[in-house]
Amino acid sequence: MVNYRLISLALTNRDIATIHSNIVQEYNTLKGYSWKWLGGVSVAFLVMFCVLGWGMKTILDRNYNATAAVYQKVVTLEDKLVEKPVTGKSRKN
């Protein structure tokens, strides 16, 4: 007489062992991918930070240069106005 319960338990244990082995294998694979993924994301953030920093520096430099040029023109115009004394006469266009 064949005991089907023992055969069924043996198959179940073998299936469980196979499933466990597959899970461990997938875990190890994903663990390797997770380090690569984390490294890739870190590199992407570093590149993005550098590019945005360079872009902001460029924008701020251009803004500073434009402001400095306008300020220099204002100083030049003020100097010209100070050199010419005001006579009190009105100008006619």
Helix and strand arrangement:
Elements: H1 4-83
Output the keywords.
single chain, 86% helix, 93 residues, mainly alpha
Concise overview:
By secondary structure, the protein is mainly α.
Residues in β-strands, percent = under 5%
Number of discrete helical segments: 1
Low-confidence stretches: none
Helicity range: over 70%
Give the averaged pLDDT, no decimals.
83
What is the ordering of alpha helices and beta strands?
A: H
**Total DSSP E strands:** 0
Q: Distance N terminus to C terminus?
A: 125 Å
Rg from alpha-carbon coordinates: 39 Å
* Overall 3D form: rod-shaped
Largest sheet: none
Helix/strand/pairing class, anyone? mainly alpha
Report on the structure:
With 93 residues, the chain is mostly helical. Helices cover 86% and strands 0% of the residues. It contains one helix and no strands. It has one helix spanning 4-83.
